[in-house]
Specification:
Blueprint: H1 2-22, H2 30-34, E1 46-56, E2 61-70, E3 80-85, E4 90-99, E5 102-107, E6 113-119, E7 122-128, E8 137-145, E9 162-166
Parallel strand pairs: 1-9
Antiparallel strand pairs: 1-2, 2-8, 3-7, 4-5, 4-8, 6-7
């Protein structure tokens, strides 16, 4: 029984390490772009393929990368996404589409990033991703000082992979 538990833990850690090494902002795979539906929930209009957060204790900053896939027109609403943050947050985004067998990337422009004061120094950051259509995959990356205010492991749409690293060294 102990051997099985150890093998399962090692398998999980190796899969986790492999996937987290693949999480690179804007580095979308052909498989992700070719995906037509999310197998565990074929009715989903969109899915979060990856929500990855990492706290860097050496400079006290937090980086978050969220990767979405749009399956249906009903999923377009996720292209206007809101994140908690502050005025010192740096936000970037890229939408990837497959056109004639090539990956076409459209960068998020500063005019499409909005900061709304919630209370005090707390802000809601809204982004409106460019050129989103059925089949699009888009990444949103945010770098902010400190640790995140919140972290959700589940959303209204399916989440394929979610990882939060709060390493203190």
């Amino acid at each position: 029984m102990k051997k099985i538990a150890i093998k399962l833990i090692l398998c999980f850690l190796s899969v986790s390490a492999l996937y987290s090494q693949k999480v690179r902002f804007g580095n979308v795979s052909m498989d992700e772009l070719a995906m037509r539906q999310y197998a565990p929930d074929t009715s989903a209009p969109a899915a979060i393929l990856c929500d990855y957060g990492n706290f860097n204790s050496s400079n006290l900053s937090f980086t978050r990368i969220i990767r979405f896939k749009i399956f249906k027109k009903e999923g377009y609403s996720y292209a206007t996404y809101a994140l908690p943050g502050n005025l010192k947050s740096q936000v970037s985004g890229v939408t990837c589409n497959l056109e004639n067998g090539k990956i076409i990337k459209d960068r998020l422009k500063n005019e499409s990033i909005y900061f709304e004061r919630v209370q005090g120094d707390n802000y809601r950051i809204r982004v409106a991703m460019p050129n989103v259509k059925v089949g699009s995959v888009f990444d949103i990356q945010m770098v902010m000082p400190g640790i995140p205010y919140e972290w959700k492991f589940q959303e209204m749409i399916p989440v394929k992979y979610n990882e939060l690293n709060l390493n203190w060294s």
